[in-house]
Amino acid sequence: MSTATVPAARQPTMSPVSKFGATHSLRRLPVQERSAARVRRMLDAAADLIEEVGYDRLSTTAIAQRADVAIGSVYQFFGDKRSLAEALSQRYIDLYFERLAARFDAEPPADWRAGVEVAIDEYVQMYRTAPGFRVLHLADAIDPGRADAVTTGGDVIADQILAGLAQRFGIGGDDELNKTVTVAVETGQALVRLAFRRDPEGCTASIAEAGDVVCDYLARRL
């Protein structure tokens, strides 16, 4: 993972969400609300610290201190800092799709190109507002426990897009479509990441190019 941090002048905030992230990243699920609140604080603390110091310098001790919990509480729910980062990545994927669904429900896109533009815009907003998001960038493995494959954040996003296509439009079950959506997602992620390398607030021209490239690819393939 990249250890690049965001300039101190940018202080993004995000309201806590009820989801904890990928359940496979948790040693155990919190049952009581008090335990659930501790897990949320740990994820919030991990996000802030990743934003400030990067993933490589992140430690479970620092997370415990920032979250105001005992170090034993961290290991009660997470095996190490990687599992915390995995849970945080999944939490952000959940949040991304909640926001995307809200946009689609409030103003349904006129066509698929408009839908792609909204999807990229929401992804850009996550970069700008969610602490640690651009450092995690959801590109590393978030399910290392699977023996058959290494699943990335891009894979999870593609799977959820495919599920949405099936649910909203009855489209699915085609291996070629699965491959096409996965390539489009990975390409869009990479180009948005490039836009934020060029400009801490996101290079406008590069973000527009991301939409054009993804739409052109989908138009050729679909």
Structure description:
Keywords: DNA-binding, Transcription, Transcription regulation. It comes from Glycomyces niveus. InterPro entries: DNA-bd_HTH_TetR-type_CS, Homeodomain-like_sf, HTH-type_TetR-like_transc_reg, HTH_TetR, TetR_C_22. The protein has helices spanning 33-53, 60-67, 71-77, 81-106, 112-129, 133-136, 153-169, 175-198, 204-221. The protein is globular. The two termini are 33 Å apart. Residues 1-18 and 143-147 have low confidence and may be disordered. Helix 1 crosses helix 2 (60-67), helix 4 crosses helix 5 (112-129) and helix 7 crosses helix 8 (175-198). It has 222 residues and is mainly α.
What are the salient characteristics of this protein?
222 residues
Class from secondary-structure proportions: mainly alpha
Q: What characterizes the major β-sheet?
A: none
Q: Beta fraction of the residues?
A: under 5%
Query: What's the average pLDDT?
Result: 81
End-to-end CA span: 33 Å
The number of distinct β-strands equals 0
Radius of gyration: 18 Å
Annotation field: number of helices: 9
Q: Portion of residues in helices?
A: 55-70%
Could you state the order of secondary-structure elements as H and E?
A: HHHHHHHHH
Sum up the overall morphology in one term: globular
Low-confidence stretches: 1-18, 143-147
DNA-binding region: 59-78
Keywords: DNA-binding, Transcription, Transcription regulation
Domain HTH tetR-type: 36-96
InterPro entries: DNA-bd_HTH_TetR-type_CS (IPR023772), Homeodomain-like_sf (IPR009057), HTH-type_TetR-like_transc_reg (IPR050109), HTH_TetR (IPR001647), TetR_C_22 (IPR041674)
